[in-house]
Structure formats: C-alpha cells, structure tokens
Amino acid sequence: MEHESDSHWGYVFKILKKSKKSQARAGVISTPHGLIHTPAFYPVGTKATVKGITPAQLNDMGIEAVLCNTYHLFLRPGDKVVKKFGGLHKFMNWPKPIITDSGGFQVFSLGLGMEHGCSKIIGKNQAGNRPAVASTDAKALADKKAMAGEGKFARITEDGVYFRSFLDGSKHFIGPEESMKIQENLGADIIFAFDECTSPYSDHEYTKEAMERTHRWAVRSLKAFRRGSSVVGRQLLFGIVQGGEFKDLRLESSKFIGAMDFDGFGIGGAFGKFKKNAKNELDWSVEHLPENKPKHLLGIGSVEDIVEAVRRGIDTFDCVTPTRLGRNGTALTEKGNLNMKSGKFALDKKPIEKGCGCYTCANFTRGYVRHLFQSGEMLAGILTTIHNLYFMEKLMKKIRKDILENRF
Amino acid sequence: MEHESDSHWGYVFKILKKSKKSQARAGVISTPHGLIHTPAFYPVGTKATVKGITPAQLNDMGIEAVLCNTYHLFLRPGDKVVKKFGGLHKFMNWPKPIITDSGGFQVFSLGLGMEHGCSKIIGKNQAGNRPAVASTDAKALADKKAMAGEGKFARITEDGVYFRSFLDGSKHFIGPEESMKIQENLGADIIFAFDECTSPYSDHEYTKEAMERTHRWAVRSLKAFRRGSSVVGRQLLFGIVQGGEFKDLRLESSKFIGAMDFDGFGIGGAFGKFKKNAKNELDWSVEHLPENKPKHLLGIGSVEDIVEAVRRGIDTFDCVTPTRLGRNGTALTEKGNLNMKSGKFALDKKPIEKGCGCYTCANFTRGYVRHLFQSGEMLAGILTTIHNLYFMEKLMKKIRKDILENRF
C-alpha cells in the first residue's frame, strides 16, 4: 500500500508507476462513479454540457471525467434544481466521474459579467475593499476602471464573497460553507475547497493577504465538508494551493494546504501570464504536498504546459481551450494548430490529422470541415471539438503509457 | 412485376402493399446507395449537413435518406468542388441515399437573399420581366417592393433563371441543362427536373405561363439527363408537377409530366398557404401520374399533411420543419408541439415524450433540455432535433406498418 491514499471506501489514489527521471507518475483515482486513469485531462462542461457534444460522443472518445463550473450551475439552473434531478450525473446523463470547481474563480472573474481567459486583475476601490475583475482585453480593462469605483460586482470579506450574477446582476454570496453546500447539491465526485485566485498583477502584500484568507477558507471548507451528509461523505475534497508568483508564498501555501486532510490538491493561479516563472511556481506549489495524493492543475490545457506539469508531479488537468478552439475553427494536431476556416483547405481531402482515430478524422475531410465553418454550420464546431478532445485524450494516454513503460 | 417500375439496374420502385381504402401504398425505392422504404420522410441537409446532427446520429435513428439543396451547394462550396471530393455521399460522409432538389425553388425564393418558409411572391417589374421574391414576413415584403423595380435578383427567361447569390450578390444562371449538370456533379441518387414554383399569389394567367415553361424545361431536363455520363445513368430523375391552385392546370401538368419517361415524380407548389384547397390540388396533381412510379411531395412535413398526402398516393416527403423547430426549441410529440424553453419544464423529470425510443428521450429530461435552451447551449438544439427527426421516422414507420397490415 506504499503508494496508495486510502479512503473509507477503498482507495482514493493509487500510483502505479513513477518516472525515474522526473516527478511524473501514472495512477488511478477511484471515485463513486468510476476510475480516472492519470495523467488525465478533463474536458470542461461549464453549464452541465460539454458544448455541442453528447455524453455518448464523449464516452466514445474514451473520456473518463468532465469538470463543471459551480458558479454557473449555482446561478442557473441552481444547485438545488440539479439536486432535485438527482445530482449532476443524472441531470446531464454523464454516469462517469464529474469534478466541480469551488466557484471562487468565476465569482471573481465573472463578477463583472464577462467571459474571460485565464486572467483577472485586482484593484482597490474607494471603500478599501478589493474588487476582482476579469479581463482579457482592453475593453474589459476599461470596464474594470469604470466599475472599480463602485465595488459592487465582487466584494471580498472574511466571510466570503458578495457578488452580482453575470446573468442578471442579482446579488449573491458564497463563502466556504456555501461552496461546500452547493457542491454537495451538485454531487460531483471531486469537489474543491473555496479559494481566492489572485491575479498576476497582484503585489506580494495583497497576494499574501489573499493566500492567508484562502488558507482560513480551506480550514472552513474542510470543516463544513466533514459535517456534511453521507452524500458528501462519498465525495472527494481537494484543497487549493495559491500564492501567486512569489516563492515564499507558494512554499508557505504548499506547506499549509498540504498538511491538511484533503483527498487531493489543486494548484490555483494564473500561470498563463507568466510562462517563464510558471514552472518555478509549480515546483514551489507542489513542494510540500504529500506524494501519495492526486494533484490537479486548474485551468491549464496546452500540450506544452501539460507535459511540463506532468514532469512536476501533476496528475490531472482541466481547460476550456480544446473545446473553445474547436468551436471557433482551430484544430489541435501534433504539428501545431490548424485554422480550419482557411481557404487552403477548400480542396483538401485529407483528414484534420493523419492517423487520428477520432470520429471526425475517420469520416470527414479538411475540405468538408472548412465548408461547414464557411457555411456557419453547427456541425463545424462539433466535428472540430470532437477532434480536439480526442487529441487531448490521445495525448494523455500517450503520456501515461510512456510513464508506465519508463519512456517519459 | 405488376407493381414494379423497372430500371436498367433492377427496379426503381416496388409497391409491396396497397391500401384498400385509399391510394396509400407501402413500397421500396431502390437507389445506387441503398433502399428507401416508403412512405418515407427525408430530413433536409441544405448545405450538405443536417444542422447539428452527425451522419452517425442520423443512422442511429434509422433514417435512410436525406435531401440536400442544389442551389446552396451550387453557390457554396460549388458543385464542382463537391464532385472533386467524389460527390455528396463522400463529401458529407452519408453512404445512404441522397436526394437533391432542382435548385429552382431556392433560385426564386432566395434570389433576394433571405431564408424563407414555403412562400414566394411574383410581381412584374418595369421591364416586363417577372421577378420572383421570397417572403415570409413584412420585412421581406418591404424588401420585395424595394427591389422589384430593379428586377435584378431573379429574372426568368425561356432559357432559365438569371439570379444573384444570396451570399454575395454575385450573378449566376441556371437553366434545365445547368441544373442537370450541377446535380450530376453533386451525385445524389434522386435528382429533380428544373422547374418554376409559382406563388399562391400568382393568378391563373401567370401560373399557366410558368407551368408551360416548367413543362418545356422538363423536356430539356430529361434530354440533358439522357445525354449525361454513366454517373448520370445511375441517378434517378424525377419530373415535377406544377399548376398552382388551379384544377385545370394541375390536371394538365399531371398529364404532361406523368406521360414523360421520368423515374418518379415530385409535386411542387406552395401548399402551406392554402390548407383547404391543398387536398384538391394534390388530388389533381397525381391524377394522371403512373401508379407504379414513386411520388414525392416537395417541402411538406407536418404530421397532418403527411397522413393526408399518403392517402393520396404520395410516397416520400422532405421538409426543414422538424429540424428548424428542434433548433428553435419546439419538440414534436403525438400530443402536439412542446415549447422546450417554457419555465413549466424547469423541474420536469420526464423525457420529452414518454415511450419515445430516441437518444434524447432515453437519456435526458425535459428539465435538462429546458436548462440547455435557457443557457443558449448547442446541445439544446441538437437533442431536440434528434427527438424531432426520430419522431418523424417513427411516424413514417407506423404509417408504413399500418399500410402493410391493412390498418391505414
């Protein structure tokens, strides 16, 4: 049992093989709805659906688990509604493992009412509170400036976060206890402690303050989780390491969160903005986490980042990128991204990627997919998303195989 | 061989059973890409895709054939491009029978650059030409008035129709010979003679003029078809009966087209606008058509209309309604249409239709589908379209079974 993390229903995580050259490992996470073979990538089904893809198609691709967003489902249809349908698995007809995030990230990033990539910006408003604003473009930055003075979109207190719905502006509050209750109602297999994800633009002072609050929220999350019903007892709770770009804070967070009795751990933060430092941040983040527990890197999904993170001991990933790129016309291949809208594919009879075993590549040409995009057809995004998710699944299977066969 | 219509590769149409109480019959159409069991409904895949649905999903529903639109494919990606991909079957990965319309209907109805339902309006412009304008709403009518004076969007001559692309306004011409060539390039199993579909607002004089032109075009279509390559030889050509709402014209057209050596027949016209008279129009249209050849009613797809038409000897149907309604939130059921966006379904755990065997009803609740529509998710339209197409397929199977078992 050396490499196993036990739980009350058997094991949570079993390491099957460790790489000799790095921290990489291949393992299995055991959940009430089945196994997740790691390293694994979770497609994101924000609103209880992986956009444009049926559960049958996900299953055909060999996908074992999906991640849904607590914030979106809390607002619509509401976690209590999902509970009435018997939880997320029954609601969305996905009988295999489901993961939900804590809701924290979106509370901050969508408080302003915008979709965004992986960044957000923290500033101070007049009242001394710290509104968190999502931003990927100049417009968002401008909106932030306009709204920061009001401080109404997201207000962080010791209790939790007051925020407005990105749907209708209605007022809501989520703290650690609320996040646990919402995630209990949603009923995912793996849930996350409530955290505050700071921005790459945050300074050391604020990042430290937010990290310490996240630690206190972690204690409260774990406490609320333990107090839960038997349904909760069957869920796995992961704690989240924060600390921004700062070595001392990352190490401190790793030590604090890693010492707690979580079933696994998530690494939070906006790594995308600091490519150079990201590897260090990740090294510091996992430094004090117990080796025998599963580690999830939140919101990261590029091939390069995944390979680097697996080397550092990360087991699981989630990101909207493969699905979002697919819908918008970009196909992932081993030779780089393809713009499927390009006229150069008009007469191309090859599949998106030669040798790919996905439904799209087995049955359709680049020329046809290009025609569908040009014609604004739904099937364009569907077929490209299928390819991209299969590509990610194939990538993870290869990484896993390489680890198991000592080739990673 | 009493009830069979022979062709050079076996039979085109075999009548297996005739109803004793009506003209209804159950049969089989034999095409190079397989059999079509009639009565049958063809889902419409306008741009070489049934919107949002993969060929695998269509196949799972038991669908045997789809109809694509010549006009759209001529403009994009172009029939020559489709030919380079080996024809429509390979292009869209649908190995079963495909039908293409003649392009005539859309040339008239989309000349103005708008999608529409089943109507169009004929008026005279200053030059004495007769522009044909599609219209389903007031805006389209206003546009018609604005553009009628120019007569630039669609100009009908004895040769054929000059029109502008609804995509980019570019100028094009399609006559009977062009339509045959385009449909040969597309390579569908069943193709249609080039025709002019008059509007319910057309008077007797104009309808007669258009019908006579359609007859001359039918002769030219058949001639061009016969002249074609061996690929054409494997296609089936259907002639189209027109004549508007007028008894004498419908009977005349039925006689003229019915006497020609087509493999089958289509009944054209805008029946939707004249419910009361539609049954008579249909009776007149089929009056002189040979009993042993297949008959297709163009663009009709409501349950009521299909049942009435099958009674009058119609074998096959096509219509965008089931897919369009599905995408827009309306589910077809035996108890009538359901608005899946309605709040009354928010907590409804029942499937869209009890007892339905479609993928959607077997796996998802009304509440989930409603959530998807409310959230603007692609899967909403996909799941409802799947249900609607399955519903139509089930309806046709029931009608067929009833005929075969003398219960229709």
Q: What is the class of the largest domain in chain A in the CATH system?
A: Alpha Beta
Q: In terms of per-residue confidence, which ranges of chain A show pLDDT below 50 for 5 or more consecutive residues? A: 112-151
Backbone structural class of chain A: alpha/beta
* Largest interface summary: A-B, 36 and 36 residues
The tally of domains of chain A stands at 2
Total E-strand runs of chain A:
19
Largest sheet of chain A: 6 strands, parallel
Assign the CATH topology of the largest domain in chain A. Answer: TIM Barrel
Q: At the fourth CATH level, what is the homologous superfamily of the largest domain in chain A?
A: Queuine tRNA-ribosyltransferase-like
Please give a handful of descriptors for the protein shown.
TIM Barrel; 6-stranded parallel β-sheet; alpha/beta; globular; homodimer; 2 domains
Description:
The structure is a homodimer of 408-residue chains. The first copy, chain A, is built from 16 helices and 19 strands. In chain A, the strands form six sheets. A six-stranded parallel beta sheet of chain A has the order 5-17-16-15-14-13. A four-stranded antiparallel beta sheet of chain A has the order 1-2-3-4. Chain A is 39% helix and 19% strand. Chain A folds into two domains: 4-111 and 117-122 and 132-319, Queuine tRNA-ribosyltransferase-like (TIM Barrel), CATH 3.20.20; 326-391, no CATH class. In chain A, 57% of the residues are buried. The first copy, chain A, has helices at 55-60, 70-75, 79-84, 88-91, 104-109, 138-148, 176-186, 204-226, 230-233, 247-258, 275-286, 303-311, 321-327, 359-363, 366-374, 378-404; strands spanning 4-7, 10-18, 25-31, 34-38, 40-43, 66-68, 98-100, 120-122, 132-134, 154-156, 161-164, 171-174, 190-192, 236-241, 264-267, 295-297, 316-319, 330-331, 338-339. Residues 112-151 of chain A have low confidence and may be disordered. The A-B interface holds A 47-49, 51-56, 76-77, 81, 84-85, 91-93, 346-347, 349, 359, 363-365, 367-368, 371-372, 374-375, 377-379, 381-383 and B 47-49, 51-56, 76-77, 81, 84-85, 91-93, 346-347, 349, 359, 363-365, 367-368, 371-372, 374-375, 377-379, 381-383.
